[in-house]
Amino acid sequence: MTVIVSGMRPTGPLQLGNYLGALDNWVKLQAENQCFFFVADWHALTTGYENTDDLRENTKMMIIDWLSAGIDPERSVIFRQSDLKEHAELHLLFSMITPLAWLERCPTYKDQLQQLSDRNITTYGFLGYPSLMAADILMYKPQFVPVGEDQLPHLELAREIARRFNFLYGPVFPEPQAKMTRVTLLPGLDGRKMSKSYGNTISMSGDPAEIKEKVAVMITDPARARRSDPGDPEKCTVFTFQKIFARPEELPPIVEGCKTAGIGCVDCKKQLMARMIDRLAPIYSRRQELLAQPDLVEEILAKGAGEARKVAGKTMAQVREAMKL
Q1: Which residues is 3 bridged to in the sheet?
Q2: For residue 232, how many other CB atoms are within 10 A of its CB?
């Protein structure tokens, strides 16, 4: 079977960008592929090392969201990154051969230094996390990695590290390709990329009241200062969401109504609220059921760690042999 690897940082209950940009795709991929999905708790430390009080609870909530969305532990290997010390070893070895310039040119590194200027993230761990990500991916020798547009530079760096390792020590690692998600970059409430770091998210498992509250404050076309002002749907965050949640035949009336001021922003938002609540209701219901099973998450992670370790152990034996360690 084709091997797929992906992970998420445990920063609490998942937001809609995680679901539409990754998780919904994971659910489809597990039907016909061998999937390894991991909790990237070491990666969470790169920007959140100063306060780890919620790390374990965040891990639990994220796994529950995975299960609520349809990730099946009988089909996919679900594990916690820090339970596999092989990941740390491979990261260390990769760090020995990865040029500093490769890390410094990463666009996400530069962007987050600016966006998170209030945090002290000028650390080795933050600079070097693409090397750790490469270890996470290459450990399982996948053919494909499901990614959004913003993660493409990291995957390319993983391929470069694989090529450099193979050149120095002999062929061990494949060069995995990107499997792009349908929704590559979802805007947040303020029009920027949806991210918990920016405080502009919508929960994927929120109740109807929360969805209504969040949609109500979404940024619309600034040109529509009054109800009678025509607008441009492509400049409106609400319309971006309409393209995701509305049926194809429902979009032309929205476009026409916006451009001619035939529909106001408030009414458009009400339509979106109804569509989002209808789409996300099954996830919300399933999540409530899973919250009533307190030991389930740790049982799944323990089982997944055992399955992942079998593969990771073989890979590291090959790495040590290739490097003459």
Answers
A1: 34
A2: 14
Helices 85-97, 124-138: inter-axial angle, 10-degree rounding: 110
What's the one-letter identity of residue 159? R
User: Contact 267/224 with Cβ under 8 angstroms?
Assistant: no
Q: How far apart are CA 135 and CA 126, in angstroms?
A: 15
Segment holding 286, helix H or strand E = helix 265-291
Handedness of CA 21, 287, 305, 89 (dihedral sign): positive
* Length in residues, the chain: 325
Residue 301: is it exposed, middle or buried by C-beta count within 10 angstroms (0-12/13-18/19+)? buried
Tell me which H or E stretch contains 36. Answer: strand 34-39
pLDDT band at 184 (very low <50, low <70, confident <90, very high): low
> Which DSSP symbol is given to 22?
I
pLDDT (tens digit per residue) in 223-246: 998 999 999 999 999 999 999 999
What is the token pair recorded at 42?
């070491």
| pTM recorded for the entire structure | 0.88
User: Which has the closest alpha carbon to 41: 18, 65, 57?
Assistant: 57
Q: Is the distance from CB of 303 to CB of 151 less than 8 angstroms? A: no
Best CA proximity match to 28, nearest among 146, 153, 125: 146
Contact 307, 77 (CB under 8 A): yes
Q: At what angle do helices 251-259 and 265-291 cross, to 10 degrees?
A: 140
Question: Is residue 260 classed as helix, strand or coil in its secondary structure?
Answer: coil
pLDDT tens for residues 37-83?
Answer: 999 999 999 888 999 999 999 999 999 999 999 999 999 999 999 99
- CA–chain centroid gap for 312, Å, is 22
Identify the sign of the CA torsion 59, 64, 69, 70.
positive
> 234 near 242, Cβ under 8 Å?
no
